[in-house]
Q: What sequence folds into this?
């Protein structure tokens, strides 16, 4: 059967591990055409070797068209290298978290056999001959070849943040995660002003805990120490929520770090918190303009069980309510309560008939205690 001349199809529909599988099957086809599925055999006979379309920058070649077609040489050795490179990239995604540098107090060895070139009989030169789209289709523009792609994947998956999502079997969800992680969308560069603001925020968080520790020695509390970055993270979630004009943000969390979140995210005055440590009347310190409301429950409760609510207004006068639900000692009981709050806040009851749900109107944030999760 004569081979088609338009090599871009159907191979342009495959990338990453799927393309690696097709390449592996083609290599098997070259050795013994009858050893593979008849339909796949017919596909190879019709279209030839797997190929891939890659964008070409006009700056690199003024006469280039929008796309150029990269066709694999029909040599089993080349295919073996491609398959090995795809397996290496996939191993970095699956096992990179095992060597991620997530603990600043412990120097972790970065070497893991599954992530080494030797394990796959690859060299830097082999990888430089492989197009980026085979290994990391969502890579940033500075990633130019397969070697750059492997370095990029190693930096993403083995650096200060660990990603583990091999348990996600839904293909659409999995591909979305890969795209978001590997595109660098969540690694924005901060201006100096933003860096200073972040440092100031972390200093406030740590200073608050140290003051309580020194001043109220022996009093029961659940420090945020070790989770300090949770407050800037909540700050960013709140900022983006009001920027997108969401109506309500509902937070449910256990005890650890609650006082710090009350003070810095919900705006509960320091005076109120310190008065509670001194078993003094604290209600006099509630802001008079009504921007913050404190939840005491029916009979009152200990300070690290209390909740609060706060209203924020953006430049376009949109008002958003942030609520931290009060939480008793049964730590997980707050989760369905907060989800219920959120579901109710998503309903538009301004029109006659059945309320219309708007999932963009409100969202829930559930924060679990690391210590509690380990016991589970």
A:
């Amino acid at each position: 059967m004569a081979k088609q001349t338009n090599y871009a199809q159907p191979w342009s529909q495959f990338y990453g591990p799927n393309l690696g599988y097709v390449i592996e099957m083609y290599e098997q086809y070259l050795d013994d055409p009858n050893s593979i599925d008849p339909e796949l055999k017919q596909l190879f006979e019709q279209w030839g070797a797997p190929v891939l379309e890659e964008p070409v920058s006009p700056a690199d070649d003024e006469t280039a068209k929008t796309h150029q077609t990269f066709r694999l040489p029909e040599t089993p050795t080349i295919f073996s290298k491609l398959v090995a490179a795809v397996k290496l990239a996939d191993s970095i995604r699956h096992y990179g978290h095992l060597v991620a540098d997530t603990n600043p107090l412990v120097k972790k060895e970065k070497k893991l056999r599954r992530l080494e070139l030797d394990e796959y009989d690859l060299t830097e030169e082999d990888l430089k001959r492989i197009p980026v789209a085979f290994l990391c289709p969502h890579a940033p523009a500075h990633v130019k070849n397969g070697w750059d792609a492997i370095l990029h994947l190693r930096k993403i998956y083995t650096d200060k943040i660990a990603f583990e999502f091999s348990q996600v079997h839904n293909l659409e969800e999995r591909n979305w995660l890969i795209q978001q992680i590997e595109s660098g969308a969540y690694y924005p560069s901060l201006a100096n002003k933003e860096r200073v603001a972040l440092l100031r925020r972390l200093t406030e968080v740590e200073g608050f805990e140290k003051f309580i520790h020194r001043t109220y020695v022996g009093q029961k509390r659940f420090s945020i120490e070790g989770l300090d970055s949770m407050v800037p993270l909540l700050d960013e979630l709140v900022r983006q929520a009001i920027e997108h004009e969401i109506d309500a943000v509902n937070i449910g969390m256990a005890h650890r770090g609650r006082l710090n979140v009350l003070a810095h995210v919900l705006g509960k005055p320091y005076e109120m918190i310190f008065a509670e440590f001194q078993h003094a009347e604290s209600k006099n310190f509630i802001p008079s303009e009504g921007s913050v409301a404190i939840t005491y429950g029916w009979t009152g409760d200990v300070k690290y069980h209390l909740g609060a609510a706060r209203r924020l207004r953006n430049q376009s006068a949109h008002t958003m309510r942030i609520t931290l639900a009060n939480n008793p000692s049964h730590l997980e009981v707050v989760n369905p309560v907060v989800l219920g709050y959120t579901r109710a806040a998503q309903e538009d009851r301004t029109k006659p008939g059945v309320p219309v749900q708007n999932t963009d109107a409100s969202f829930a944030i559930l924060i679990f205690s690391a210590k509690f999760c380990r016991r589970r």
About this structure: Residues 11-182 form one domain.
